[in-house]
Amino acid sequence: MTAAPLDEDGLIARFFAPIAGPGGLGLRDDAAVIAPPAGHDLVVTVDALVAGGHFFADDPPAGIALKALAVNLSDLAAKGADPLGFTLALALPAGWTADWMGCFARGLGEAAAAHGCPLLGGDTVRAGGPLTLSITAFGAVPAGRMVPRTGAGPGDRLYVSGTIGDAALGLKLRLAGRGAPEGQAHLLDRYLHPRPRLALRAALRRHASGAMDVSDGFVGDLRKMMRASGVAATVDLGAVPLSEAARRFIRDDASGFEVAVTGGDDYEILASVPDAEARAFEAASAAAGVPVAEVGRVGEGEGVAFRGRDGGAVDFARGAFSHF
Amino acid sequence: MTAAPLDEDGLIARFFAPIAGPGGLGLRDDAAVIAPPAGHDLVVTVDALVAGGHFFADDPPAGIALKALAVNLSDLAAKGADPLGFTLALALPAGWTADWMGCFARGLGEAAAAHGCPLLGGDTVRAGGPLTLSITAFGAVPAGRMVPRTGAGPGDRLYVSGTIGDAALGLKLRLAGRGAPEGQAHLLDRYLHPRPRLALRAALRRHASGAMDVSDGFVGDLRKMMRASGVAATVDLGAVPLSEAARRFIRDDASGFEVAVTGGDDYEILASVPDAEARAFEAASAAAGVPVAEVGRVGEGEGVAFRGRDGGAVDFARGAFSHF
């Protein structure tokens, strides 16, 4: 495999201009233009991913592209923001190929179209280290209405979307190199293909006091949000939603439960919802097609008390998966 | 030197939260908020820099930070945009130290304050390759008024700000490892410390039909802008403004002239200005304290004809310095 003989302009014209949105000006200017809706704030989030840390260098390139965009859209979803577009900075390893780039760009274009979040611009450098992608994504919320991480208040209920731990268990399977046992392919898929919960954004905007996306592990992210909000919480681990595949994994290997609740890459939403809004939030989530489960309560003070499935107190040594 | 024993949250709290702007929410949320001025478009630009490509790994960290921000502000300046803020993605090499990071963050904070462009958010990953920085910068222009690269029209005059070639000659001195001869320290400084021409943005917005920043070499960037605008140009190389230090370099080494006009890292502004606006543009630039020089004319057709200092036609084999 030899590096494709393309300069940066050729690379942009061939692979990225075809997938750019109108604000990207054909990727032929120095900058892109976003016209934010009147009366809206712009929400900006940035997430960088590196081969060997956030994905495997030999993952399918379209999957890498999807993941890089999805982890950023997950942040926008948690903030209640409508996606407007994104920029991409790509640091290429030695020996990248036009084939790889074609698949990557196609995957990125499909993910962007599927989520209504067009590519607006970017930059590409040959870094010679591991493939590193950095996406900055933009969204809009009505002015002053971004759902903050700091908004949880005493008495609020804590909800989590979807199921927790699938991706972390999928990564465990992947690292063990055994492939997926019967009924557990779902876990590998959740690791490779995060699905940002954009469908939940309106319900969060209307009913949640606070939210963040669960990307570095449920236990650690929950502690982080309670700390940021200056409150305490009691969490019922028995109420943490698990997929059928995760349950099956844990039935065979009890250590899987801790992996599930502390491991990363869920890209689900953790939200605090005032008591008076709880039913409306549940109804709006159901109407949006996103399952949510109540997992605990916010209280005064600090720290998170986890109650195990047997009712006893549980502590976690590790708390959060850190990509860093 | 050992890597500093900090996790990502610790690193953010210690080094970056102190230099963040209010929209960065103390870097404790998943996202930042920008409230763009009513009736304005948001201009977005992204530039990535990699050690060994855009700077030397052993450059002073504050200088690296300044350069990473400045090259993005240079794009905003060329688009006539008022800076609003920026995000940073940092891929760290093995063996980074808290000392290095402290100097880097301090330099970044000073550069951000000097240009009124606060840090809003970011992400840091340990990549283990060369240090790679990607900055996405945001600016505002009155709706529909971004100065495009594509706007040059037949009859327009071509202007360039400041002086051309200093940084490329500085890089040449640096690579030769000889230090700066008498009177040429200016060249090394221009390579290390780009000064974005933000002071010119109002003049560009009012009077220019098109503009781009000169970052990859005057000759190549001029060709790029004419191609993007679908026009031709005639350029008088004798009119290209050179600093006293560059003239001195070229007096000793005639090959320096081609390096000066084709080499990168000028971070000056190339603008096309309609004839009727030319005097007003010159006056506005002078009032802003930015020297501008008329270097040529836009015409119908395609291609750029360069007239040498002796009046004859000149062609350039290389045309543009490419970081890529």
Automatic annotation (TrEMBL), chains A, B:
Q: Where does substrate bind?
A: H54, D265, F321
Misc: Reaction mechanism of ThiL seems to utilize a direct, inline transfer of the gamma-phosphate of ATP to TMP rather than a phosphorylated enzyme intermediate.
Residues the entry annotates as binding ATP: G122, D123, R149, S215
Molecular function per GO: ATP binding; magnesium ion binding; thiamine-phosphate kinase activity
Matching InterPro entries, A to Z? PurM-like_C_dom (IPR010918), PurM-like_C_sf (IPR036676), PurM-like_N (IPR016188), PurM-like_N_sf (IPR036921), ThiL-like (IPR006283)
| EC number(s) per entry | 2.7.4.16
Which reaction equations make up its catalytic activity? Answer: thiamine phosphate + ATP = thiamine diphosphate + ADP
Q: Which family does it belong to?
A: Belongs to the thiamine-monophosphate kinase family.
- Pathway(s) per entry: Cofactor biosynthesis; thiamine diphosphate biosynthesis; thiamine diphosphate from thiamine phosphate: step 1/1
Biological function: Catalyzes the ATP-dependent phosphorylation of thiamine-monophosphate (TMP) to form thiamine-pyrophosphate (TPP), the active form of vitamin B1.
Supply the enzyme class, top level: transferase
Which superkingdom is the protein from?
A: Bacteria
Locate the residues binding Mg(2+) 5.
Answer: D216
Q: Where does Mg(2+) 2 bind?
A: D47, D75
User: Which biological processes are named by the entry's GO terms?
Assistant: thiamine biosynthetic process; thiamine diphosphate biosynthetic process
Q: Does the keyword Hydrolase apply?
A: no
Question: Cross-referenced Gene3D superfamilies, in alphabetical order?
Answer: PurM-like C-terminal domain (3.90.650.10), PurM-like, N-terminal domain (3.30.1330.10)
TM regions (residue ranges)? none
Domain PurM-like C-terminal residue range list: 153-306
Protein name (record) = Thiamine-monophosphate kinase
Tell me which residues make up the PurM-like N-terminal domain: 29-141
Keywords assigned by UniProt, alphabetized: ATP-binding, Kinase, Magnesium, Metal-binding, Nucleotide-binding, Thiamine biosynthesis, Transferase
Identify the residues that bind Mg(2+) 3: D30, D75, D213
- Residue positions binding Mg(2+) 4: D30, T45, D75
Identify the residues that bind Mg(2+) 1: D47, D123
